[in-house]
Amino acid sequence: MPEWEPVDEWTVVLPYARNPIPMNNGHRSIHAHSQRVKRVRRQVAKAVLDAEVPVLARVEVELTWKVRTRGDRDPSNLGGVAKAMYDGIVDARVILDDGPAFMDTLAPRIVYVAPGEAEAEGAWMELRIRSLDRVTGEPARPPRITAIAYHAAAELAEHLQVMMRPHERRLVAYILSHPDVPAMRLRGMRKDKRTGHLPPIARLVAAAFEERVET
Question: Among residues 70, 84, 109, 116, which is most buried (max CB within 10 A)?
């Protein structure tokens, strides 16, 4: 019997019969590799949102590839697709970043599934996401986001004239309602080369950190 039982945990199923981003395909073009990474990130972000994973302070993530045939497969070859999936979780605005302060990653696994053990045909991948306490790293319930914070997020977006999607509003409300979260810029949000401005969601997050300090 484990010392604790998972408090909040989600398993996102992805229909990848083959590894979409193998580490040993060095002969492929850089452009093709980039397109595969973007596609996996999009698919994972959508799957995480469809699973209704809330905003979390810190997470533990584990990738498992369920296969139907026995063979000599190297789990370390899943490193590329695992990194793209971690980025996809961040793209879904479930956490602020995939660095060690926000995400604990377990080594990817490959598990053989015998015929009759599962209804799904062929192979597939599962991404397990578990909520952790941001400071201790222990299992924890998702952080509470107040109705006042949701309202404040909407007012801030209106003030900045920024359109928010629901998952972005959750993230901004989380920042506003949790002053212990360290101020930071969203990873990957660079200034537009032509205008020199940050993307709208990045400006909104930066304003949320400033608003939180003022209040």
Answer: 84
Rounded to the nearest 10 degrees, the angle between the axes of helix 147-160 and helix 200-214 is 120
Quickly list H helices, 21-146. 30-50, 79-91
CA–CA distance, 15 with 126 (Å, rounded to integer): 9
Which residues, 6 or more positions from 142, have their beta carbon under 8 angstroms from its beta carbon? 8, 54, 55, 56, 57, 131
E strand residue ranges, the chain: 9-14, 58-67, 103-105, 109-112, 124-132
Listed range (2-11, 32-41, 118-127, 159-168) with the worst mean pLDDT = 2-11
The structure's pTM equals: 0.87
Pair 112, 106: CB distance under 8 Å: no
pLDDT of residue 122: 72
Query: Class assignment of domain 9-132?
Result: alpha beta
Q: State residue 26's pLDDT score.
A: 56
